[in-house]
Design brief:
single chain; about 350 residues; alpha/beta; Rossmann fold; Dihydrodipicolinate Reductase, domain 2; 2 domains; seven-stranded mixed sheet; six-stranded parallel sheet; about 30% strand
Length: about 350
Amino acid sequence: MTNRPLGRSLRLGLIGAGRIGTNHAAIAAHHVPGARLVAVADAVEIAAKRLAAELGADAVTTDELLARPDVDGVLITAPARHHADLVVSTAAAGKHVFCEKPMALTLADADRAIAAAERAGVVLQIGFNRRFAPGFVAARAAVDAGKVGTPQLLRSLTRDPGPFTADPARIPQWTIFFETLIHDFDTLCWLNPGARPVAVHAFADALVAPEAKAGGHLDTAVVTIRFDNGAIATAEASFSALYGYDVRGEVFGSAGMVAAGSARTTDMTLYDADGIHVDTARRDTDLLFSAYVGEIAAFVDAVRAGRPSPVPGAAARTALAIALAAIESVETGAPAAVKA
């Protein structure tokens, strides 16, 4: 199969009916012209049936979904440990692939997933939604236009809304790098186009929920990244921002600076006897709703137009390489090289 233009709506299946899968399914069903959700699969059958019923799709097994001739593309939103295998099996079935981050948990699996998509001639797009947030899009345009000159210092941060409590039995080890800071790693690479990350020094701890540290779950981290163009970047994450979801990015260069992102959901500010107040989000899907719509729309457009994905598997591999170097740095207490 090759990626040729598609002269009709893209018929989508979803694998993984959890929180983010529910969000993506609703977007595909209601907010993306040229897309139609036709099937939902999940390891928990009742979850698939509930979501499919809400959205007018069929509840099926994963094998049934991949065998259906009326499924052109698949949104993979299952747990991260299954992503690489699902990318491979979806591509082998001749379906285009949108995979939530991380695409894989090892570089070998990342390479396997990328090769499978290339071999099948299908679009492979990864869910790095900040590339589609209006402020971040404008920031990248300013960088491309030379308005900040040569990038020298970059910053990206993610603060999940608190209060945060950890259940070590349910939270995978290294979640802060694989599933949270992975967004920041991609953002920093995207805002420093043409540069390659070469070295990482990471610091992380369980400052919010110390009881989870023994299980390998860390909730606070700062990562410094050195690029081959000389730029230095920092990525920061916390799982307990009491004021709400907070996502920001910044590029400082020889000619100026550009900043994007906010914790605010509107530009309204209330001034009253209790102080100054702004609207903030409690979920990423509220703060970044337009970005979630944008990334799925971009996937649909790429498939229908027969063109490559705007967020290819190679981008996911680079972000993963940074995450793995950060984990190595935390384990050794020393800087780590980013593996090619």
